[in-house]
User: Fold this.
Amino acid sequence: MKMRMRNVLPVLLAMLVAACSDPRQEVTEQLTNQVLLPAHEKWHGSNAALLVATEGFCAGELDVSALEQAFYRTLQQWSYLQPLMIGPMAEGNRSWQVQFWPDKRNMVARQVEDLLAAASPLSQEALEGASVVVQGLSAFEYVVFDEAVDLTSQGDRYCPLLTGIARHQQALSGEVLSLWAGSEGMTVMLTAFPNARFASADEALGSILRTQITAVDVLKKKLGVPMGRLNQGVAQPWQAEAWRSQHSAGNLQASLSGAQAVWERVRSLVASADLVTRIDAAYQDTGKKLAALPAPLVTLVQEPEQQSQLQSLYDSLDNLETLQQVELARDLGIQIGFNANDGD
Amino acid sequence: MTLTRRHLLGMGAALGGVAALGGWAFWQGKGQSPLLLSARNDDAGKHYCTGYFLDGKRAFATPVAERCHDVARHPFLPLALFVGRRPARESYLIDLRDGGLLQIVRGQPQRHFYGHAVFHGAGEWLYATENDLNEPGRGVLGRYRLDQGNLQLVHEGEVPTHGVGPHQLAWMPDGESLVVANGGIRTEGSREKTNLHSMSPSLVVMDRHGELHSKETLQHSQSSIRHLAVASDGTIITGQQYQGEAWETVPLLAVKRPEQPYQPFPVGASQLAMMDQYTASIAIHGERRQVAMTAPRGNRFFVWDLDTAETLVDVPMEDCAGVGVAGDGFAVTSGQGRCRYFSYQDGQVASHWLDLPGGWWDNHLRLG
Assistant:
């Protein structure tokens, strides 16, 4: 039996509509194009601005506050990106090149000074060949904010490092963006299935959620480590992330916003209205507690009267993690990870 | 008396247990798709010993109490031991024809399993790596005799593995010597690692009665030697898991070629960085002289030429878990996504999805 074209067309259209209306594929595409890729692009943009500000400062055209503001913006974009860091940036040890945390033995300060003692003025080549400890924002932060460094009088010593780090960061984010582009880039892997990485939109969505949930777990660590949760309750203020710039809580807020951006897109897929309400409430609750912190984390963890407030924030993060890792994953029928989290 | 296939064929009817496996000759072969054996979970967290034909048809999924890790298949009877994962006190002897649980093999007092065991080629003995909790971390090789009449494994002594925290073991080509990966990590009956700053991993070759033939180490003492495979010429490839600082990049594969010292397998720094300091399962394709390895934390699957170390396959694969030789290539399971098949021939990588269920596969599989 021959099928006429006018009979085939509606069938093809129906198939096309069915394919396009797969809600999980739609959400994965939205996440990719509206959340994940833009977050990488904004991070790259902030690195470009950091380089401009650093060169301006080192040329004597900008004051240190302009440099600090550029640093804060970069740190903010980096923190926002972490729950969205699926693919290239999460691979190949790249993230260590951006931030060195936790710095258990004050390695950033020691290695920066050792590097500058060995190679002054520092060349870009020497920095590229050095440890990740000195290539990223943590080393940049040390130079700009640490009391031991007088940047005003020691610009000749430290500026080559600051400029080198800013260049390294811009090159790194540029490389990562290039790995998102092209016919085999991450954008295609997250939007056209099956592909070399994912068999289906479900798998890609599972991987996005796994990245996001892992990042929420890292937020717990970023709070819990300085609180002393891994140190028999004895506070470790200098283990706080970004303690020198007193930006720890700001980083946590930015990362929570990144995680929430994933949730906002995923929400429509959830069958249980009750679960949606509870996860919405968990984000709101955690966000409020973070915004209400009265002082930088490095200070708060040293004040006994603040412990209950910090513990309450930690509990909120823990609740958010559990809701997503257990209940959300179950509701969506999506697997969050098995051997990668607990192999042998 | 050594239990051999010939003996079984001759005496089968006289032995109750073997007679019970009477269909075994018919069960093997018959043009079936290869049977893949692996431990698996379900999304409720329950544990299973599973058998799936590679074409996707389920042979069995037997629920068990403890999560298992590797599978020791009997050389010619349709049975296999699914070995409890560290620090399991149980392993499970399974009838491969229907998944029937023949025996819950309970660990000896003050011992637990490490997830790996092997049957001797003659079929009478099984050897399992175990922890001596009287002296935590001291590795022992538990010896179990297969009771032919009752098809039960009976513990009959142990010998040291000459190292701490033994993990995978495999037969050398002589079929009498074993290579054991002593991971070097001390645990005390839980999953907590208690000696990460004083680890002592080693690669040991010993005979199955306990005599030490060789013991070698690698440069990085925090590189836990975990998994291995042996080629027909005796070349041993091992995979390590690094317990040192998270930002460091250290060798994660090593090789011991016949008559040569144990040393890093030459893998490039960028590949090492992609592994996220963790390797899982290793398989060697004897005919093609290829070695495959999964890196579930780095979501990466690799195949190299065993002799030249040339990279043949280097692809992303989410939470890739077990790997085994199938036909011209390798079947690979995943803890998170669909299972895949990869082969490399004449400069080309061929890959397709397998019709197996996706996700929840543990880190090892056996095919045959």
